[in-house]
């Protein structure tokens, strides 16, 4: 604030001009994020303790989040699509990549389980049974991390997706879960969004323990973005990390923070020391 006084020499006129000049605040940090950290309630919970101005959140699939970072529409992306992340990092040497947390994908379906998915000995076998039975599967179909993992499971199961009964929701994980529930279909979900919504759904968790269902989350940002770097540090090693670790859904840890000492700078990295097994999760 500055105060300027002007007066005529005769002393008969005195005017005060008050000019208020305020430095423009920094624009909000723009973050594109997979919908699962939004639908699960994690991001709202974590950001309550963020010490700066609240970031602006753009909920999208991981593929779209990466594209928004590439377009410089956002400052940072939170994703869970290792294959898409690998391609993006390879073509952007100026990007920083850091694993953040992990949980699991789960295969869900009607309680009657017509394709006997619940008794399959692996996630790949479960997908084979869904296709062989001709059961309906609801897919995100949106290049999200969940969609990426679904496609990898279909490939591993040697299933021609063009011939399978697949309905495309084209929406968020929450939308996809509701559609699968309404159509008595199978689907793949991150477990945190499933836990958040399962009280309103008739779906049943049929497969969860396979190593092929480990679901890792990462932050990605440009090296020359100090605000994004500061936020990523707060999230991966500061108070944000503590908030992630403390987040519960129905008294279960919805996400596990990335284990200290584990490789974390490449999309292919997995939690080390057996941390990605069911026995390594605090529930």
Detail the topology: elements first, then pairings.
Layout (H helix, E strand, L loop, with lengths): L1 E6 L6 E6 L10 E4 L1 H5 L2 H6 L8 E4 L2 H9 L5 E4 L2 H10 L3 E15 L13 H11 L3 E3 L5 H12 L9 E3 L4 H10 L3 E5 H7 L6 E4 L6 E9 L3 H12 L1 H8 L1 E2 L2 E2 L2 E2 L26
Parallel strand pairs: 3-4, 3-5, 7-8, 7-9
Antiparallel strand pairs: 1-2, 5-11, 6-9, 6-10, 6-11, 6-14, 12-13
Helix pairs in contact: 9-10
Query: How much helical structure, as a percent, in the residues?
Result: 25-40%
Q: How large a portion of the residues is in β-strands, by DSSP E?
A: 15-25%
**Average pLDDT:** 89
Within the CATH hierarchy, at the fold level, what is the topology of the largest domain?
Answer: D-Maltodextrin-Binding Protein, domain 2
How many whole angstroms does the radius of gyration measure? 24 Å
Q: Which series of helices and strands comes N to C?
A: EEEHHEHEHEHEHEHEHEEHHEEE
What oligomeric state do the depicted chains represent? single chain
Give the domain tally: 2
> What's the tally of helices?
10
Give the CATH class of the largest domain. Answer: Alpha Beta
